[in-house]
Structure prediction request, 173 residues.
Amino acid sequence: EHPPLPGHRSHFWLVPELSVARTAAARAETTLTRFSRGVKLFTEGDYAGALPLVSAPALASTSLADYAAYYTGLTQLRLERLDEAKKTFDALAERKLTGYLPEGIALRQAEVATARLDQQSALAVLEPLTRQKTTAPEVILMLAARAAQGAGEYDKAIAHFRRVYFEFPLSAE
Prediction:
């Protein structure tokens, strides 16, 4: 942004300089750039540094509010704050979301349950995903199979392992 420029070249010397305050304001970080920096810190593994940036209250009024809450839960999970992460993901799961978030939230809820050694809860979250169209069905089937195995539901575990074996024979799973 700059002041309007005059129409004739000879008047360019009259254009006012940018004020110091205006330059500082232009350099100031916005809420979304701080969120972006928080996501970058998260991907670099600096979870403690990322948490205040992705969980800033100002993000609640932006278009990325749901993703900010998702990254808040992810960061809490990586910091092993399992109770906080569970509350965050449970609150998100109650909302009507679109895109990747419903699948991602369910996967993170299962991850929290697994970290808490509650395989039955992990299986309860993963089972519905095995019947839906997802981004990585073979991964979800393997997670569900392992959760079923850990919960002692061997018939379900075998069924999920078979689906991976026969439906995705070329996958790493």
About this structure: The chain has a mean pLDDT of 88.
